[in-house]
Amino acid sequence: MTKPENSELKQRRVLLKKYSTPHQLEQLLTLLKRQSAAVQLTLLGKVTTAADHKNETDHEWLDDFVTRWRKFATTPIEYGVVTNPEIGTIFIVGSFADMFLQEINGKKIGSMTTGIYGVLRGLGIDQEAVNAYINALSDGTYLIILRGYDYELRSFNERIS
Questions:
Q1: What percent of the chain has pLDDT over 70?
Q2: Would you tell me how many other CB atoms lie within 10 Å of the CB of residue 142?
Q3: 3-state secondary structure 36-103
Q4: Exposed, middle or buried by CB within 10 Å (0-12, 13-18, 19+), for 84?
Q5: 92, 110, 119, 159: least surrounded by Cβ within 10 Å?
Q6: How confident is the model at residue 53 (pLDDT cuts 50, 70, 90)?
Q7: Which residues pair with 44 in a beta bridge?
């Protein structure tokens, strides 16, 4: 990673990526083990898409994935499941999970019709991109949210592209 300039250290930014297979998530997990920067990561996915072709149930695969992630994580890994009327049942794992799992009037934000949209917009993602990511999530694509300084995200993005 190249040495950052002062302007790159002032504000953390958010980067969203889409992945279509659990294998790609496994590669991401391997990269995270080697990543020295303190990039925050959150993973969202439909529960029905979480199992690989090994006949594992969704929850077995996800529990194993989270357990391995927690082994090298420097901060606690939050984890939860919500049912969203527009998308279906989704899991949320990582640094921003609490934003989706927080309750308002007894209902988790992620389970509200516009909850996921609101959280992503609140992270600074533009409206068109949010709509595209929500559609992809609804179609079974995994959504990765990365938060870090520009130089960290550039380095990370180069390695996962």
A1: 81
A2: 23
A3: CCCCEEEEEEEHHHCCCCCCCCHHHHHHHHHHHHHHHCCCCCCEEEEEECCCEEEEEEECCHHHHHCE
A4: buried
A5: 159
A6: very low
A7: 92, 143
Six-digit token string for 98? 């609490």
Averaged pLDDT for residues 127-136: 95
How many whole angstroms separate alpha carbon 77 and alpha carbon 66?
8
Closest residue by Cα to residue 96 from 81, 109, 78: 78
Q: Which tokens sit at 60?
A: 């077995």
Structure tokens at 124: 């600074």
Q: Tokens representing 137?
A: 């999530």
Q: Does 146 score more than 60 pLDDT?
A: yes
Q: Domain map of the chain by residue range?
A: 14-155
Dihedral sign (CA 69, 70, 71, 74): positive
